[in-house]
Specification:
The structure is a homohexamer of 238-residue chains. Helices cover 33% and strands 23% of the residues of chain A. Chain A is built from seven helices and 13 strands. In chain A, strands 1, 2, 3, 4, 6, 8, 9, 12 and 13 form a nine-stranded mixed beta sheet that branches. A two-stranded parallel ribbon of chain A has the order 5-7.
């Protein structure tokens, strides 16, 4: 079930905050990847299907610097196989004491057309990664090579990331507030609802800036508000 | 005991660092709201009397999305009742896994003339809030709706925020180092002392920049320093 | 064993990420000071020999505000004794609830030609410190005076800082990813190797930006890559 | 809505594990007070309505040792007012660095017929409290007087305890696994269901001890299991 | 490579402390499952090959109470498939806020001849599990059903547990100090060395109890100590 | 200033809870070693002057297993030099991921007449240590050899332990609630006051067990209580 291009476009125009509310209405309260932020909060919203990499704690004898000579090493393999348009999501067990990846690998993802990268650990070369066009999200910068603490073990399996479940193909959205995971089968619905909610929130924000109280306005418990909003949408063609 | 306008002005010109030292001299060592920072550190210093909101952990059956249809909901009520010039302080139990508030409510506070907002949790729509004129302080951005984890229960009662006690009417000051809480009855004294201390610190900084050792200068254990400082103040009219 | 000026220059041109890999190859996996970041990530790389200050938890009766009247107070003594070119490293027991130091002391270090300052706690006056030329690294801003929680007890002894061992004279390097500690006797070797590695990483980055796969390129498992790199170095005179 | 004596008796015979499953079926996933254990795990199951005490962080000037000379001090008042049969629940902000209460106050609760005491902080005199007949639950022992960090502020208001919401009158149950909070209006239903579930679990345990596989037995997906269970109940008169 | 019965017997007679030292000598410093303790520390030492279960964070819509009606549910499947003599090791992401398993499943493991069970989360029905003969290890008791936070996703794959890497077939040993993981290919060697070390430690303990200084004795830097130990072994036939 | 034998005896008969209150009255609020408990809570109260050992994070190249061949190794030296009657206190940076010491060294301390041992980390061979007569306190059991994470660096210097300051010669008292540090110059005074307080607390406990309210009794705000207590003391000869 590939991500519908229209859905992708809709999701690019809404916020993770709005999406979490739409998920909350469906009983999903734990889809936010906790304690992960953009390296550059000014980038456009990231949207794409999850492609995952699973790390386990590194055993010293299995992780000399030479492991990368193996072309089949799961980390390197994953970097070359992640589909364009996808978001590369790493389960680093929320451990940022060693890096999840560095600028060369993230640059390669960018070149391959990948839509973004997320770890619940940290990136090295964080200043360089922040300057790339590809959106990137982590807990904090972390210089030590990933071999210090992380051993890549599985590619594109269900993982946990920042206390959220991530299944391959789930739709991952990231902005200045962090990263949210939409179950694949809900993506179209959530996108539609979030676009609607965003229109209303924009209307409310405009009214609040004009000095209006939130009472009866947010939520729109007064009939007058709903009529006013309908007119506003018509005028703005939203 | 409303905040004296002169005291407010004085506090706008001193730092939270200086204030904590003045509090320390009076035996108050825990008035800093821990692990809370400005969304935009370049804003002017925030000063105002505390107006509080207390959250408890949300019970699922009491917190459907429809609770906000109730005009008396404590969160919405508090937003409309917080006095102009006050600082809105939220006890979120230092839990930033769900939002304490979002940009619409903070915009409404700004329109109402509120002096600032603080939570020991996190705000959603954090990029929008950072761009508002009203100073705002939190632990980190957090997209999920507050209903996910927080239930508003009390308005303007004594609370804990970031491990500091906050009583309604206490004077709350925030800058790039975070937020400090001055007990109401000490506000005038602390403001006076902090202004004095700031003059001396500015003098010391100038001398240090000229190459002076801190020995005998900071603190002013040498008589010569005290004489020099008196002359400096006279010259600068401070 | 003073830091070789050539080694200092080399280290200024490499990243902490590259250095941690060189240390990892030598079996040193814990030399990164954990969870410490630059106050201003845009500053040049910090390099210098470690000069240390050790704090223990402050006992209230031994830490009134008047302790600084003692010219021999270890904190103030350390500030005046830290050699030019060194990095001042503070063991604050990873406790940022009170400040490790403020802008006046850091300004004095700058005037004295000190190369940088690091704490695993926090600085007060953080906005001022960020604007100084001297590089500074901490966990987070913290306004309360250091006397609240920290008592300076020892100058220039081996310490722990952010879970890393720091011996006086170790070479400390800091950039946007944080701070790494190179054992003194390895500094020249690590610098040489890091310069070599950096040349290769720059070459790889260029190739990746041209669209090359990392397979066979990073690491250079293919002979062709090694030949191409040799040519690249020659051309760039690196 | 006082706790029905039959409901109390039923709840004494079921486990907190079984109760959390019954709550889970009703969409309540956060009613367990996290990280709180019995001082003496061999005591009978604790059951009673919640009577609450709320602490905020202690401000030093408001909490000299003499505050207890005030008979109206909320902590002492609460101890004398908690109804027999109730469970005394303290919101200590999950902070066990100072005591929530000591053996004298807990002994007084026991004498007054209170059914138990719970804090998400710690008790002092923990060995003495463990030897009392009244069940007690905390995070860990903690000697320092509560005035060090906790200021009693409110009696019998809604609180958070160990990340769970606790409303006065909720039914609190504690055993070796910890403490669970049943919303008052669900207590009768949950008690009935938990008694049923316990009968089935006892049946399953017996069969498993006889060597039976859990397949088809737990849950009872096979008709044969349901028939066998019906016979077992009849025989045991449960 | 099944676990050699002699190796199993040897490992039953040595401590996890001794094993970690033998691993340390081989450069393996992270094989201890951190922060996990026996439910009953008086049980004999647990030894067996790792058989693993991987949990990810539970998504609410995928984890209703009815999931266990599926006989292929990974948790239930794993319980019935774990080989006799093996140790069942669960990756609960060090999250003890919901249970990893309860007494019925652990009883079933005991009946099937499984050698022990370990989670880096917590067990429900902890008092019952402690009374079973099968050794069990967790972080702390936790009543809520596993569906609250954990979704079983993989059986017998490499996992992390308490920050240690665990590969299926690794040899897992547990005693009052916790649980250590021996890479499968090292089990025989480690067992031999640990038996030797234990003999020496017993000798040293005896001598220390007789009043001997540890100087020259522990480690045996003096020739006399080595001669005395050789005699002691002969006499004790160890 | 050696510990007065009478003071030692008095302190053996009072609790750490009572001592923290006496310290609190003198403005000392942070003398409790946080999160440290006895390995065997049934042992008599530990009392002795602090003799300290300071660990820093272990650097791998400086901590091979062979370091103990050096008779001057600070850990082994400290074990042989700690005076009889003293309490051996280890600064392990509150890191229990590797052991602070094991049963052989603790047995040696016991044979040498040392009064107790405390670490803010963990002990290996914890079951054996619990069975020794010498009182021992730690955070939790921890099997890995101390070389894994801890390097002994200083003997008998001021340290932090569990967030409390510990100066050599301070008087350390431990019971089931944990360990408190009395500044050396206050030991006699605190002991006297704690004995007095204990008599009153025993009186209060007796009255509460007889059914008395705490109002007017605890604290003794009523004259009648004070008269009754005087009589009680006379009768009990306390």
């Amino acid at each position: 079930m590939p991500l519908n291009p229209e859905t992708r476009n809709k999701l690019k125009q809404v916020s993770t905050a709005t999406i979490t509310t739409a998920l909350f209405k469906r009983g999903l309260r734990r889809q936010m990847i906790q304690d992960v932020l953009p390296l550059d909060p000014s980038k456009p919203t990231m949207v794409g299907e999850a492609f995952t990499l699973r790390y386990i704690p590194a055993r010293e004898d299995l992780n000399p610097i030479t492991v990368f000579h193996d072309r089949g090493h799961p980390q390197r393999k994953a970097i070359e196989e992640c589909p364009p348009g996808a978001v590369f999501v790493i389960d680093s067990r929320s451990d940022a004491r060693a890096a999840s990846a560095g600028s060369i690998l993230v640059t390669r993802l960018e070149m391959r057309g990948v839509a973004g990268i997320v770890t619940d650990g940290g990136f090295r070369d964080s200043a360089e990664i922040a300057r790339l066009a590809i959106p990137s999200f982590h807990h904090r910068p972390s210089a030590p090579t990933n071999l210090t603490l992380h051993q890549a073990i599985d590619v594109n399996v269900p993982i946990g990331c920042g206390d959220a479940p991530v299944f391959p193909g789930d739709v991952v959205v990231g902005d200045a507030d962090g990263v949210v995971v939409i179950p694949a089968h809900l993506a179209d619905d959530i996108a539609d609802e979030a676009v609607e909610m965003t229109a209303f929130e924009d209307f409310v924000t405009e009214k609040v800036r004009e000095g209006r109280s939130i009472r009866g306005l947010y939520p729109a418990t007064e009939e007058a508000t709903r009529i006013e909003f309908a007119a506003w949408r018509k005028e703005r063609r939203r």
